[in-house]
Amino acid sequence: MQVIEKHVGSVLVVRFDNSPVNALTVGGGLVQAIERRVAQAQTDERVDAIILTGGGTVFSAGADIADFEGAPERIDAIRSLMQSIENCRKPVVAAIEGLCLGGGLELALAAHFRVASSTAKFGFPEISLGLLPGGGGTQRSPRLAGAGNAIDLMLSGKSVSAAKALEIGLIDRIAEGDVVEAALAMLAAGLVGSTRRSGSLPVPQDLDAAIDSAERRTGLTDAGRAIIACVRAIAQTDLQAGLKLEAEQFGALMTSEQSRALRHAFFGRRIVGKIPGGVRVESKGVRHVTVVGGGLMGTGIAISLLNADLGVTVVEAKPEGFDKCRASIEASLRRDADKARITAATADRRIGALNMGRSIDEAMPSDLYIEAVFEDMDAKREVFQALDRIAPLGAILASNTSTLDLDAIAQFTSRPEAVVGLHFFSPANIMRLLEVVRGARTSPETLASAMAFAKSIGKTGVVAGVCDGFIGNRIFEEYLRQAWFLLEEGALPHQIDAALEAFGMAMGPCRVMDLAGQDIGWNIRKRRAVEQPDRPYSKIPDLVCELGRFGQKTGTGFYLYPDGRTPQRDPLIEALIVSHSRQIDFDRRVIDDSEIVERCIFAMINEGAKLVGEGIAYRPVDVDIIYLDGYGFPASRGGPMFHADQVGLPHLLEKMAQYARGHHGWAWEPAPLILELSDKNQKFGDLNR
Ligand code: 3H9
């Protein structure tokens, strides 16, 4: 059933019934079902007015995003519904409780009157999917709320409260109590009548000023520009012509790679939360967490836990570390209050939820223990043996290791089924990604609970199997390997960074390693020289490290940092690179940007495919989300594996074969999964279902 209808006197109440978010699905028939009810009510003499309403927590989250993958004409049904509502000769009232987003808000705007509960929320999130409001939103919202307010809503994608929506004219009333009862009372009192309340044209000067200011914004996307074009049309044409333009723009955006990539990421973030094999992701109810180790990582983890309103104990043995950790946590929470992100009372409450201990024995009984001490097996052994001794049965024991063998760590306890990896990314209170590492003996309940915990603290949890570097860093190593080879073949750091930043990476690899600390990569390369002598690296980053240039923290790395932050080319490093090429007898050549991008990104894809093939990553989309949420991969490209599907696997293999004939061609052995998919004429996307 798509709608539930009820006659109350002469009013027809139509309640949407499409759990969980009342998506306005065309494929599933909700849109057509609402339109049918509206059409029937027009001719039904028993009906004088119609109320459209949703559920308690969601009026409607908008159009069904899955519909956009099908035939574009399908979407016309939504516009037809909006027109039927607006043109209905009997008053149509939207009674709104909970979330009213995207197409859901457009439906409300097409109605003649909008009454909402005080907790309702309104927004146009389409821009985050690379789209514009395509159900009349670009035309009706400026007429109701003013061009400036409407543009702000559409370009930001953010939601506003019912009070704000009332203030700007997006809705007509806030109801005390039940919204349907309130709508019925208003109809009975003749407050709604049959007059249309779909707004009036904005004053031309206001419209021009709003458009001017929107056009000056930086970072406008294709969707942003299309929104502005549609709002501009309000001054030039009538509503119908404006709606037509909006529909055309929506169609173009919907089929663009940018929007397809963003939709892939939307569903991807939800798919990665699912554990194959029907394991239900549910929490054991984590309320109190002990973090062992109050260094940079432990401090960041503690902040993110306090921000999620959990009780936290941080155990730090070193006196100076103890004081620094407490001070950093307090400073971070106070800063949030100063910047009005939270109230002072919330900051106080969260600071009050922090306990500090000097030894594990001082930890309060916790539901989850997160070890964040330095990367040394003996240190981990000591922590996990102690945790095994003190942690209550049923608690989760987690390690934040990024390089060590989780299965070996689990063996330090008598309960390896309760041990899981929680690999936070630095700064842990900011970065959205959390790799949840599944050890050989981690129980499904522990894994499910760790994933539910990730969601509860606002992180995107992605499951990774045990291997050196897990998913993210194992791929990153191959990306860097190509970047460093490119340096010895003819490229310079600024060229590599510029090429990859133009592709869309948040920061090029030379800058990233200067920021993260060149010594981190150096340590890994030293280890690899012993473990994998047949997979060498370029020596160039080692030469940089040998000069004591570890990046921003030492003031110099690949670049100079005169102001501490902004990279500046350094002739000394460029000379060092050129001289190294000479030493290894390599004739430097001009390398174009497309080769830089292909080699770095294709190496990433190849390793990603190996990880999926080995079962370390459940699905290609897991790799995509890790790269989008943890490594600055451009959102508009949907992640490395989605990008590979756009490039085409046969073309990818061809290019890899070409690079395999070049410098250090051994690094281009194709992942068996790519060969297999390409043979079967399939894509990575086929494995995500
Ligand atoms: C639009 O409206 C275009 C129109 O302007 C024009 C048309 C012409 N469609 O996030 P959750 C699924 S574009 C389909 O885990 P939460 C979601 O995949 C749309 N499915 O819950 C998940 O499925 P599963 C503009 C949707 O409580 C389940 O619902 N609207 C949609 O954490 C639960 O979702 C948006 O962009 C959808 N629209 O968050 C809003 N929405 O269980 C997108 C959700 O199988 N949605 N699903 O994994 C959201 O932001 C969040 O889902 C919401 C709830 C805040 C609503």
TrEMBL record:
The 3-hydroxyacyl-CoA dehydrogenase C-terminal domain extends over: 469-561, 596-681
Which reaction does this chain catalyze?
A: a (3S)-3-hydroxyacyl-CoA + NAD(+) = a 3-oxoacyl-CoA + NADH + H(+)
Q: In which pathway does it act?
A: Lipid metabolism; fatty acid beta-oxidation
Entries under InterPro entries matching the protein: 3-OHacyl-CoA_DH_NAD-bd (IPR006176), 3HC_DH_C (IPR006108), 6-PGluconate_DH-like_C_sf (IPR008927), ClpP/crotonase-like_dom_sf (IPR029045), Enoyl-CoA_hyd/isom_CS (IPR018376), Enoyl-CoA_hydra/iso (IPR001753), NAD(P)-bd_dom_sf (IPR036291)
Q: Output the superkingdom of the source species.
A: Bacteria
Give the matching SUPFAM superfamilies: 6-phosphogluconate dehydrogenase C-terminal domain-like, ClpP/crotonase, NAD(P)-binding Rossmann-fold domains
Q: PANTHER family from the entry?
A: 3-HYDROXYACYL-COA DEHYDROGENASE-RELATED (PTHR23309:SF51), 3-HYDROXYACYL-COA DEHYROGENASE (PTHR23309)
What is this protein identified as?
Answer: 3-hydroxyacyl-CoA dehydrogenase
Organism listed in the record: Sphingobium cupriresistens LL01
